Amino acid sequence: MKIKEMAMEASGPVMVGIDGSTASVRAAVWAADEAAARDTAVDLVYVVDSARVEDSDEAMADARNAIHRAWAAVAESDKHVKVESEILEGNPAIELANAARRAALICVGHKGVKDSAPLSRGSTASSLARMAPATVAVVRRRHMHRRPSFHRWIVALLDESSASHAVLRAALDEAALRRAPVLALTTWSTGDSVEPESSTKAGGIRTEIEQYLRDSRTHPADVQVCALRLPDDLLNLLEQSASIEQLFVVSSRRHDFVDQLTGSRARKAMRGTNCSVLVVHDEALMTEPGAPAEEDSDS
Predict the structure, then answer these.
(1) Structural domains in the chain plus CATH codes
(2) Region 136-146: what's the mean pLDDT?
(3) Which of 4, 48, 89, 253 could tie 294 with a disulfide, CB 3.0–4.6 Å?
(4) What span, in angstroms and rounded, lies between the C-alpha atoms of 68 and 32?
């Protein structure tokens, strides 16, 4: 199957959490690419943190200024997308998670303008990645409009659960959009014979990966797919290779991976890079009767 024939689905706008930080503005520019690929709008959402507001008029003015800055940055990009905006009030992570129910994707910067004690740096992004009912992109970009170099990897973390189908699909879509190769890190050794019961249990994910690998070796492909066994220490790999990767794609059901990729050690490893994290929420899987329980182990 040609990857270019795959189209990103849009069940709503691409939403962006805006807080006045440069990181959130860069997330809005990143989101414009996603919205253009889905033929949908960018929705800029600012949440006034009621617990930290002393002057409501000043807070609303800050919100409008922050949205205007992000709006201008999207307008200056080469993507012609419709831009909408809204201002909410409450806890930022909770309100963004609630708003995400009507979004195809929600994007946030890797750090916020108010990241400080008692909250850890990136706490809103980390919380949102765990609780949002939609796919979440935690965006890290070094420059406002300059794209990462071509051929930087899109890395998909795959286990043998049925959730991995959505992760692989998202990784392939992102790779086609960004003209990048895909590296599948699997909890099994690729090239091993596929046992019938394993194929049935996983919904065919091992077979699907093997098919992509065979196609990549024998036919020209729109997206190059490679595979390696997932190392025991994911963060050690990240520390060694964050500069050559532009996106990690992981299932929202794998809380262990999400915590690792949004934690302090990962943020340190990704500092100064363009390495973002896409946490894939598959609504069909979450509502499927008898869906398998989430896995919290690395194997």
Answers:
(1) 8-139 (3.40.50.620), 153-286 (3.40.50)
(2) 82
(3) 253
(4) 15
